[in-house]
Write a structure and sequence with these properties.
Layout lengths: L1 H14 L1 H4 L8 H6 L20 H12 L1 H16 L2 H18 L2 E3 L2 H10 L2 E5 L2 H6 L7 E5 L5 H9 L3 H4 L7 E3 L1 H13 L3 E6 L5 E7 L5 H8 L5 E2 L3 E5 L9 H5 L5 E4 L4 E4 L9 H5 L5 E5 L11
Parallel strand pairs: 1-7
Antiparallel strand pairs: 1-5, 2-3, 2-4, 3-6, 5-6, 8-11, 9-10
This protein binds iron/sulfur cluster (SF4) (2 copies).
One iron/sulfur cluster (SF4) binds next to helix 13.
Length: about 300
């Protein structure tokens, strides 16, 4: 009897699924949580100066940049995690990923979304990348702070208070206030180098920066892709190749950081696996045949539930 009732309930769910469990629009978790169903990183509120009055957030930002040694410890722990038994590994990944969603989590964004962010933020600053400081021990100016206030606002003030030479000098150029046009031109240059753009929270939902990442040097990409511990979402997009336009040159394969592109020797065409694609658009920028396009992830039957 109980089983019959259960079966009837499940069947009803299948038949009129939306009435029983309303289907959410397929967007990343942060769009639902911090964007009211719209792209959360296009919400100006998530960059607001008000959010920086939160003392916990200010402390997090200061501690984050001051403690590269804790990131180095994190790399060693990730290597240990790779050797852990499957059930331990899965439990740790779930716990750490959920914790990171509260404090420092990212999302891949293609260049047109960076352009849209730059339409409403007021100022952009360029500074040395924390990840490369940790992994390479040298300065690489791949990170951009964005603010709703002039001259980097409160975020720049907080970072300037931090006594860390690689960020604020004296050996480096420190925090450079640059125009949005200059910033976009750097971003496009980095895209041609094969780097993928990502937005980052400093205690969600506050977004403080846009980085340019690769799998070799960027801690977040290494953590997410190499070690399988997600600390960033895929883009709200997924790429596809038009076989009519593709000439099989494989330039796109060379730049994809996520191993999402395959090649058919028989057809002399490349193809994209939507299960692997992060939607960064880097392949698109190197395709001279304009054969690659980005489509909304929510409309892709395979990729719409993979974040
Ligand atoms: S770069 Fe363009 S033309 Fe070359 S293989 Fe990739 S999709 Fe095809
Ligand atoms: S296939 Fe997807 S993940 Fe790979 S470069 Fe293209 S958009 Fe990025």
């Amino acid at each position: 009897m109980v089983f019959a009732a259960f079966l009837a309930f499940e069947t009803k769910k299948l038949l009129v699924g939306e009435a029983v469990t309303p289907l959410k629009r397929k967007m990343c978790e942060f769009c639902h949580k911090h964007g009211e169903g719209r792209k959360w990183y296009l919400e100006a509120n998530n960059y607001s100066e008000d959010l920086l009055s939160d003392l916990r957030r200010r402390k997090f930002i200061m501690d984050f940049f001051k403690r590269p040694e804790s990131a180095r410890r994190g790399i060693r722990r990730l290597n240990d995690l790779d050797r852990a038994p499957g059930f331990v590994r899965r439990a740790i990944i779930r716990r750490v990923s959920n914790k990171m969603k509260k404090v420092h989590f990212g999302q891949v964004v293609p260049i047109e979304e960076v352009e849209r962010i730059f339409e409403f933020v007021t100022s952009v600053a360029r500074f040395a990348c924390f990840c490369r400081h940790v992994t390479l021990g040298s300065e690489h100016r791949y990170c951009f702070g964005v603010s709703m206030a002039p001259n980097g606002g409160e975020l720049a003030r907080i970072v300037r208070e931090i006594d860390v030479a690689y960020l604020t000098g004296p050996q480096t150029a420190g925090i450079e206030q640059i125009s949005k046009e200059e910033a976009l031109s750097f971003m496009r240059e980095h895209e041609r180098e094969g780097l993928c753009h990502t937005v980052w929270t400093f205690v969600a939902p506050f977004i403080g920066g846009i980085c340019n990442c690769d799998r070799s040097d960027c801690l977040a990409m290494r953590t997410t892709v190499t070690h399988g511990l997600p600390v960033m979402f895929r883009a709200e997009y997924v790429a596809s190749i038009d076989p009519e336009l593709c000439t099989g040159c494989r330039e796109c394969m060379r730049v994809c950081q996520f191993g999402a592109i395959g090649y058919s020797a028989a057809l002399d065409k490349s193809f994209i696996d939507p299960r692997q694609c992060y939607g960064c658009g880097i392949c698109r920028s190197v395709c001279s045949k304009e054969a690659i396009s980005l489509n909304e992830r929510s409309t892709d039957s395979v990729a719409s539930s993979i974040w």
